[in-house]
Amino acid sequence: MPPALSPGAAALRQSVPIATVWAVTRLGMLVLLLIDRLGDSGVSGEVHRLYRGWYGQLAHGAFPLGDATWQYPPGAAVVFLSPAALPWLTYFQAFVALVLLADATVTLVLTRAGRQGAWLWVCGLPLLLNLPLARYDVPVTAIAVVSLLAMASRPHLSGALAGIGAMIKVWPLLTVIGSPPGRRTLTVWGSAAASAGILLGVLLMGFSHPLDFLRQQSERGVQIESLGGTALLLARAWGWSGDTVFQYGAYEFTGPYVSGVVRLSLALSLGALCWLVLWRVGARRWNPAVPYDAAFTAVLLFTVTSRVISPQYLIWLLGLAAVCLTSRHTALRPVCLLMVPAAALSALVFPLLYDEVVSGSVLGCVLMVLRNGLLLAAALLACRRLWTATS
Fold first, then answer.
1. Average pLDDT of 110-132?
2. Residue 5: how many CB atoms within 10 A of its CB?
3. What residues contact residue 348 under an 8 Å CB cut-off, 6+ apart?
4. Which pLDDT value is given to residue 1?
């Protein structure tokens, strides 16, 4: 009989298939990005034009002022400035390299925590085609993933990362919603507040107009890919007189009842927050997977109730679903697996068949109903299973 492998050697041997699949799929994603001819618009243009333009302004100490496309918290400046760390590359090359580094980091920490989660991430992300490499959501997701996985053993680090992530794109703050009650919650929440406050203070001192994003965010309408947008898309097919316009960096609806849909979306988001508070107060049973399940459920809820659902939101959901699958205690395994078809449908929505969605064709309507219906079903199922598992 062959000699038994040591635990370290066995773990290394088992991680080789994951590393191989990661390398092959990421090479394919990179090729698609360089060719960049999927669908009706180039995915890489956002990095070449938008991110590169913001970099030029941020490098001179000023946040974009009066720019309708700048809708991010001030901490996002750290990500957009980060390609400067690789001065021998062009901005585009450096940005993509750093995204791949963040992707590899997520894969590594998930592999160490639980290979099922790593497989979901490694195989699920390429379903979004080349999009993840040309958006800054993978680095943000990496921060959230590491924050969640560190919560059990290093609560100070977990909270600090959640606070930094919140200053970059808000939603990583939701990773603290399921922190174990007692002293650990105080540690995690306190560290999150401290790190967010410190980063904000540094940015306020070093840059001008860091809070201008609030004005742009507050004026956004109903994006055609949101749940409310799907309702309006169907209404237009049945004779509603509204139309789509390109504003704030996305296609949004204009016309009668749009403002009502905006108010309803905000009310539903408030309702989701109330439900999370009610769950937190009423939760009685805690296991190692509850922080993961709660974070995933929270982000799902705010995704489906948002007036904006961009395809890159699936990057967040895949990352959090992967974290859930690292624990055998998770109650959300069926919900996590729903993210796979949701990601595939999102790739059809954008970039492959985006012109069908914008025009409101039958195919476009079917795609949006399927994708958003799947996300809504996943959110409701997650709520039920989280409540049942902890009450």
1. 96
2. 12
3. 367, 371
4. 47
Residue predicted with more confidence, 238 or 211? 238
| Cα(192)–Cα(196) distance, integer angstroms | 6
CA 147 to chain centre: 14
CA proximity to 33, closest of 101, 100, 105, 82: 100
**Token pair listed for 26:** 């990421």
Structure tokens at 114: 């639980």
Q: What is the pLDDT of residues 256-292, one digit of tens each?
A: 999 999 999 999 999 999 999 999 999 999 999 999 9
CA–CA dist 349, 209 (Å, integer):
35
pLDDT one-digit tens code per residue, 284-324: 999 999 999 999 999 999 999 999 999 999 999 999 999 99
Burial class (CB in 10 A: 0-12, 13-18, 19+), 280: middle
Distance from C-alpha of 171 to C-alpha of 211, rounded to nearest angstrom: 17
Q: In this structure, which amino acid lies at residue 57?
A: Q
184: Cβ contacts below 8 Å, ≥ 6 apart: 151, 155
Report whether the peptide linkage leading into residue 64 is cis, meaning its omega lies within 30 degrees of zero: no
What does the alpha-carbon distance between residue 226 and residue 234 come to, in Å, rounded to a whole number?
12
> Both tokens of residue 260?
């009502």
Dist. CA 227–CA 261, nearest whole Å: 10
Q: Which of 171, 153, 159 is nearest to 196 (CA)?
A: 159
What H or E segment, with its residue span, contains residue 336?
A: helix 333-347
pLDDT at res. 241? 87
- Residues constituting the chain: 391
The CA distance from 105 to 355, in Å, is: 35
32: which residues sit within 8 A by CB, 6+ positions away? Answer: 38, 129, 130
State the Cα–Cα distance between residues 16 and 19, nearest whole angstrom. 5
What percent of the chain lies above the pLDDT cut of 90? Answer: 81
Q: Do 292 and 320 touch, CB atoms closer than 8 A?
A: yes
Does residue 164 contact residue 143 with C-beta atoms inside 8 Å?
A: yes
Greater pLDDT, 239 or 267: 267
Task: Summarize the confidence of residues 136-153 as an average pLDDT.
Answer: 97
Q: Where are the beta strands (DSSP E) in the chain?
A: 222-223, 243-247, 250-254
